């Protein structure tokens, strides 16, 4: 049973993303990155989630729905900022029309920079979330997506924006 | 790409728009400090109809007769204080202080309402769907956006037009290359920059790759929404192959920043043989995938007569792109007002009559095949020629409208430069144009088919919200 601990349920929050990060998140459901092989799943209710992934710099209209979603997720929970915008260093950072990203605004503790990060980088970030919740320590991610970078976990953006 | 501009008084806007619609299709409308502008795609270019606005006379709203422009007029009213007469839907367009206007609902015996969103049960952008249904049948769907509004147009004002390119590329991730192309064309047009033929050809390859990955993805999600797991898995696998080709071609899986004012980024299409080989492999797999789709009778039956959008409804709602062509429409910007390499390397426009999910998927299959043909032909014409960037020097003042055919339809950029900086830039995305049609096409269907109808358009929220 130990290998299925922690079979994380993931709830996804889009807070002003350009949809680029969503395209790469969507790949996690495809055959190349298939997260269900680790017992992970994108869940249909925040009540079923252990991990909340967040993209985008944050918008006015998403502040309340984002807070409500986080409140609905039972503890222990981990918040993962996906992409430069959510990490707080995207192209729109500092613009008056957007917020400061999920690390600052929602207290995300794991950062996956990239614009967008590749599916492999996102998987590596999710693995760190599973580990933080007491899950497996074996790295499961392998980068086949031709990205030049697999760096995960820094709160500063990679200089290379290529996704 | 402006082929003509007509100016009328505010009270004459409604009749003048009705006249223009005899000649072409509406691209949208927007306001600036100078007044309002309605844009149309016609043979050989964009026709502009403008009206100066003053406080004494309201603008005669067109959304009563052309409901497709309702969002545009509500946005003009909210953001530029334009006074309209007879606006049929005068609710604030976007959330005010984070709160959306109340949804329009159907009422009556046995009719119930269900609200979905803004947070959805998957990897989906935020929007609010308010379904009114009687039993299983959807009586009305009100779809409201604004959750991804980043105030981008305001924040772009005052910027150097060249510096803006990476931010324009990130208005929306799924149509980034098409928008970057329209934006580059706008900057180049007002700067009188001449772009070399090989660069035009390279850009054609880049934007057709964008169409390929999006259309393959659409087939995958239409399979998923019809409950066909195999089709979803194969489609997502093929999309991944397409994204890796995009990376091999441009250094970015979603083609961000590949097209820049003046040319293409350094490194784009450096390894042409590798990209061509990968495209041939993908094309063969896509053909097998398409065969599997059309061999699946139960899938085809689920796609048939679901989410039907009639020709008249598509026209009234100013629908663009594959959805327009699946409802008998004839306009493809690449064909109607060719730009770049499409001027001498033309497309074969796809067309279907049915207006249902099946027709939209058929149009996308035909366009996928044509994209592969276009890409191969472009590589032949490109040969080993170098992709030199041209100098672009933004002028003191300039104003233009450009439009390209993105994966979901017309992607329009209206750009005004004054004092060498951006005075106003407005983006009308194909998703912005088509969302009202999704709500319309869903009405009358059963609730479980709503995601399928939605996915057959597969629109973005980011470029509609901006
Ligand atoms: S990080 Fe990049 S890809 Fe992700 S939402 Fe921001 S701009 Fe889009």
Describe this structure in words.
The complex is a heterodimer of chains A (163) and B (466). Chain A has five helices and five strands. Chain A is of the alpha/beta class. Chain A has one domain: 3-Layer(aba) Sandwich (Rossmann fold). The termini of chain A are far apart. With 466 residues, chain B is α+β, with helices and mostly antiparallel strands. Helix content of chain B is 41%, strand content 18%. Chain B is built from 16 helices and 14 strands. In chain B, the strands form five sheets. Chain B has a four-stranded mixed beta sheet. A three-stranded antiparallel beta sheet of chain B has the order 7-8-9. In chain B, strands 12-13-14 form a three-stranded antiparallel beta sheet. The chains are: A alpha/beta (163), B alpha+beta (466). The interface between A and B is large, with 54 and 52 residues.
Relevant terms:
heterodimer; A: 163 residues; alpha/beta; Rossmann fold; 5 helices; 24% helix; disordered C terminus; B: 466 residues; 3-stranded antiparallel sheet; 16 helices; binds iron/sulfur cluster
> Could you tell me which ligands this complex binds, including any ions or cofactors?
iron/sulfur cluster
Count the strands of chain B? Answer: 14
- CATH C-level class of chain A is Alpha Beta
H/E series of chain A: EHEEHEHHEH
Stated plainly, the CATH topology of chain A is called Rossmann fold
Order of the strands making up the biggest sheet of chain B: 1-4-3-2
Structural class call of chain B reads alpha+beta
Radius of gyration of chain A, taken over Cα atoms and rounded to an integer in Å: 15 Å
Task: Give the uncertain stretches of chain B in residue-range form.
Answer: none
Number of strands of chain A: 5
